[in-house]
Amino acid sequence: YVLARPLAILNIDLHHGFLFYDFLLPALGVILSYGLVYFLTKRVLLSFFTAAFLHLNLFLYIFNRSPSPQFNFLFWLSLFFVWLRFIELPNFTRAVVVGLNLGLLFYIYPYYWTYYVVFFALYLFLNYVYKQPIPYKKYLIIFGVTLVVAIPYFINLGHSVSLPYYDETLSRIGLISSHFPSGRKIVMWGSLLLVLVLLARYKKVVS
Questions:
Q1: Are the C-beta atoms of 41 and 75 separated by less than 8 Å?
Q2: H or E segment at 141?
Q3: Are 76 and 119 in contact (CB under 8 A)?
Q4: pTM for the whole thing?
Q5: Predicted confidence pLDDT, tens digits, the chain (207 residues)
Q6: Which 3 state secondary structure label does DSSP give 206?
């Protein structure tokens, strides 16, 4: 709906709409990827080559697929960016922004919000183990805002689960008794991301 509605308002047909988004969305992804790496490293060349490697090499064909991940992944990147800004200055406003962004992921792609819930849990746990200072009250604000934003999602999920053909539908579309070959890659890149963030904190790139 988010992608289709602007095309309807501007009276742009589907073919030209795809061409437009194929230009706009990858460009936004490159900019966000560059900004994230630069925020962590403060190095222009490393940020440039990392963004180029991700979008022009490793995931070139994957990011040409719309709307997922070409559109969806922008929300994943934006959440990571606002979370890094929150780590830099963990105030109330940034906590709310992180919570809003995480709450929106419930409506974008289920794997993204489940990834971040696990990621934040591991991050808090490891910082607790290594006795790093963590603003736990601010994280409670993040999770509280997230739950408020996600309330309609859970209400709709409850209605869906109560349908008599819910289980059969999940089975038919491959969400039950299936496997995802990309799972290993998700774990690998997620683990690498967690290591980079912890390393950045250790090096005082983010405090």
A1: no
A2: helix 136-161
A3: no
A4: 0.73
A5: 677 788 888 888 877 887 888 788 888 888 888 888 888 888 888 888 878 777 776 665 666 666 677 788 888 889 999 998 998 899 999 999 999 999 999 988 777 888 888 888 888 888 888 888 888 899 999 999 999 999 999 998 888 888 888 777 777 766 555 454 455 555 566 666 667 666 666 666 555
A6: coil
8 Å CB contact between 111 and 186: yes
- Rounded distance between C-alpha atoms, residue 92 and residue 170, angstroms: 39
Cis status, amide bond into 133, omega within 30 of 0:
no
Distances in Å between the alpha carbon of 53 and those of 30, 46, 56, 168, 196?
10, 10, 6, 41, 17
For residues 61 and 71, what is the distance between their CA atoms, to the nearest angstrom? 14
Q: Which two tokens stand for residue 178?
A: 């299936």
- C-alpha to C-alpha distances, 65 to 18, 51, 68, 69, 149, nearest whole angstrom: 10, 18, 6, 6, 28
